[in-house]
Automatic annotation (TrEMBL):
Upper taxonomic lineage: Bacteria, Thermotogati, Deinococcota, Deinococci, Deinococcales
Signal peptide: none
InterPro entries, per the entry: CAP_dom, CAP_sf, Ig-like_fold, PKD/Chitinase_dom, PKD_dom, PKD_dom_sf
Ranges of residues in domain PKD: 79-130
Domain of life per record: Bacteria
Protein name from the UniProt record: CAP domain-containing protein
Native source organism of the sequence: Deinococcus oregonensis
Length: 347
């Protein structure tokens, strides 16, 4: 599920804008009856077990599910995923490629392989509609990474990418200023799926000190307990956010995309990607995430102050996150000239 509150705001000191987006998805005991997996494992010898399932999506296929069992030393878990596949271990991951209702079961075995506990539950996986190829562009200054994040494919397979007719991998590709064409081809359950798009690269600026100062000011607000309701310090202090390289990629893709394509929105006008999709394109699959964007502000102090005095942005900064990605991008001659992005995540 995705929730978003979009706000535009023009401060008195000139043309600038803010927009916040929130996508907080964290499932425990997915589906109907999965609470049974966290119950009933009281078993023998007064040993307690706990089982947790989590997924980072809307419950739609293809659905990646992580199954975790907290067990005493020497015990192990055996899983039946309900789709003809099995797994073993205290923590396993499984992908459900098709919609349906699945019965998941787990068996807890002691050190001698004896069965000491079992539980079952139901998992509903919904369809994502027709198969389709999508791509997510992780843009940077003079470079590009391409991902198939956002594609709907009901079969395992490896996507292939082309930039200007040349095969490329997941690593960054250097791009000169000018037009470029990107193509993704993904093997689906009934054949190859393909999508292409074009965009124009241009020189982009930035500032490492500005990014560092945004981080410092953000963590200062958390440390001093900024209260989003009263818009003053003195509330409960929060731990600092740690900067994360993957989230930096997602943040840079958003700031660069806005600067290059002239849009101001959480959904990219270049590739249609959302904040969650850009994060997934980096390889990270957090339990929850959020994004703040702004345009037109000329300093870290100005943009962080703007975010802190806007309730939605403030709640992201003061949210239950542990990681952050940052990006300040400049492109003279565009409407706003400066573009700012914060991406938050909790693993």
């Amino acid at each position: 599920m995705t929730a978003g509150n979009k706000r535009s705001w023009k401060p008195k000191w000139g043309r600038a804008m803010l927009l916040m987006g929130l996508s907080a998805v964290s499932w425990t005991d997915l589906g109907r009856g999965l609470s049974a997996l966290a119950q009933g494992l009281q078993a023998t010898h007064s040993i307690n077990y706990s089982v947790r399932l989590s997924a980072n999506s809307e419950g739609r296929a293809p659905l990646d599910v992580t199954m975790t069992a907290t067990l005493p030393s020497g015990y192990r878990a055996a899983w039946d995923f309900g789709d003809g596949q099995q797994g073993a271990g205290a923590a396993v991951q499984h992908t459900y490629y098709h919609a349906g209702n699945y019965t998941i079961s787990t068996q807890i075995l002691d050190g001698q392989g004896r069965l000491v506990g079992t539980a079952t539950g139901q998992l509903d996986v919904q369809s994502s509609g027709a198969e389709r190829a999508e791509m997510t562009l992780l843009l940077g200054s003079g470079e590009l990474r391409v991902s198939a994040a956002g594609s709907v494919v009901y079969a395992p397979g490896t996507p292939r990418f082309q930039v200007d007719g040349r095969e490329v991998g997941p690593k960054a590709v250097a791009l000169a200023a000018g037009p470029h064409r990107v193509t993704v081809r993904v093997p689906g359950s009934s054949g190859m799926l393909e999508r292409s798009l074009t965009f124009t690269m241009a020189p982009l600026g930035g500032s490492v000190p500005f990014d560092a100062e945004v981080l410092r000011l953000t963590n200062r607000a958390r440390q001093r307990g900024w209260n989003c309701a009263t818009q003053r310090e003195g509330g409960p202090a929060l731990p600092p956010l740690a900067r994360n390289a993957q989230l930096d990629l997602a943040a840079t893709a958003q700031s660069a995309g806005m600067a290059l394509a002239g849009y101001f929105d959480h959904q990219s006008a270049l590739d249609g990607s959302t904040p969650s999709r850009r994060i997934h394109a980096t390889g990270m699959k957090p339990r929850s995430n959020a994004e703040n964007i702004a345009a037109g502000q000329t300093s870290p102090e100005e943009v962080v102050d703007s975010w802190l005095h806007s309730p939605g942005h403030c709640h992201n900064i003061m949210g239950e996150f542990s990681l952050i990605g940052l990006s300040y991008v400049t492109r003279p001659g565009t409407k706003y000239k400066t573009y700012w992005t914060q991406v938050f995540a909790q693993l």
